[in-house]
Amino acid sequence: MTARKKKFSELPPRSRAAIIVGALIQFALQGAALRDIKKRPADQIKGPKPLWVGLSFVNYFGPIAYFLVGRKSD
Q1: Burial classification of residue 52, based on how many CB atoms lie within 10 Å of its CB (0-12 exposed, 13-18 middle, 19 or more buried)
Q2: What phi, psi does 44 have (nearest 5°)?
Q3: What share of the chain is helix, strand, coil (3-state, %, to 5)?
Q4: In whole angstroms, what is the distance from residue 51 CA to residue 54 CA?
Q5: Is residue 53 within 8 Å of 34, Cβ to Cβ?
Q6: Which residues, in sequence order, are bridge partners of residue 71?
Q7: For residue 43, what are the contacts with CB-CB under 8 A and spacing of at least 6?
Q8: Is 49 helix (H, G, I), strand (E, B) or coil?
Q9: What's the pLDDT tens digit per position in 2-56?
Q10: Cα separations (Å) of 42 from 36, 37, 55?
Q11: What is the pTM of this model?
């Protein structure tokens, strides 16, 4: 017997809030990474810009990796 997946509206309020906060954090990280990639000159980024744009879509890991290792130090 398989368990039926719950709809978002059926989740407890605390779970719904956690999902919403997690999504907002992901969107903020990705937006900040994409904005930085767009504005930063290519010679200040380790690797090609299109690679980092693609990686920014990997939840949490991509944007965080960009900020930690994708940018060259000033």
Answers
A1: buried
A2: -105, 10
A3: 70, 5, 30
A4: 5
A5: yes
A6: 45
A7: 72
A8: helix
A9: 778 889 999 999 999 999 999 999 999 999 999 999 999 999 999 999 999 999 9
A10: 11, 8, 16
A11: 0.83
The residue written with tokens 């956690």 in the block is 18
Residues 6+ away with beta carbon under 8 Å from 44: 71, 72, 74
Question: What phi and psi, each to the nearest 5 degrees, are found at residue 18?
Answer: -65, -40
- CA atoms within 13 A of residue 8's CA, in its CB half-sphere: 5
Which pair of tokens denotes residue 42?
Answer: 């290519």
Q: How many CB atoms lie within 10 A of CB 25?
A: 13
Q: Are 54 and 20 in contact (CB under 8 A)?
A: no
Please give the angle made by the CA atoms of 30, 27 and 62, to the nearest 5 degrees.
35
